[in-house]
Amino acid sequence: MILRRVTEHVKAQNWFAVGIDFFIVIVGVFIGIQVANWNATRLERLEESAIVERIRNDFARIKEDSERSLAFHAGITEDLKTLVKALRSGAVDVGDEEAIERALLLGITFQTSADHSGTFTELLSSGRANILRDKELLNELVSYEDFLRRFFVAQGYYVDMTMTVMVPYTSAFQYAIDASVFTDDLQLNTEDPMIADYDFAAMAADPAFQHAAEQLVFIQSLYSMWRRRIDQRIESIQLQLSGDTP
């Protein structure tokens, strides 16, 4: 319709009307572009809100898993310290038997934790991380991922260190192979003894075993330090996500 009007005005040499027609066309195109841009921005903001909510849920799960891992390694570190204390004194204090058995059973273990946010990993791999307008949050997430990469390098180092003391440490006792290691809900079973037999006097008299136990205290302490630092970074990200940062 607008084209027919322009043609008629041109034939009539009504240049003022032609100018008005072109102005109407230009304004219409401009408004159309602006509406399209506004709609695209609105959809992007909706997508960003959904992504932030997914990241928030990811870190709620990550925090829970991190605290579980941190508590596990902090507990094993204390159990190993109890074992070393007993080895140095040559006697087991009353009430320390369970801690020593846990140290024997779990002193060489590392509990894994789901530390990555699958949502943020997906954003990074797709090159769309900049959809997050909160650049402080984005920087925190990038820094967290970088810290995890360094942690995994350190974790490999601690596992290698543990392997060097594994033989002298585990050869001093026997596992109860018939014991139920896990409960029905897949938690560690602390009711059944899982260490079948060990000679504490022989352990205390064996320098290689004592050295292995002392090394494990050192390794688990360092590992716990890394886990605490990860937990602190998770808390910082959760503060950003909640909007409660100062």
Please describe what this structure looks like.
The chain is 74% helix and 3% strand. The protein is an all-alpha fold. The chain has one domain (61-242). It has a two-stranded antiparallel ribbon with strand order 1-2. Helix 2 crosses helix 3 and helix 2 (15-89) packs antiparallel against helix 7. The chain starts with a helix and ends with a helix. The model has no long low-confidence stretch (mean pLDDT 82).
What is the domain tally? 1
The topology string of helices and strands comes to: HHHHHEEHH
Given the helix and strand composition, which structural class is it? mainly alpha
Separation, N- and C-terminal Cα atoms = 59 Å
Largest sheet, in brief, is: 2 strands, antiparallel
Strand share of the residues?
under 5%
* Gross geometry: elongated
Mean pLDDT, as a whole number?
82
Summarize the structure.
The protein is mainly alpha-helical. The protein contains seven helices and two strands, in the order αααααββαα. A two-stranded antiparallel sheet has the order 1-2.
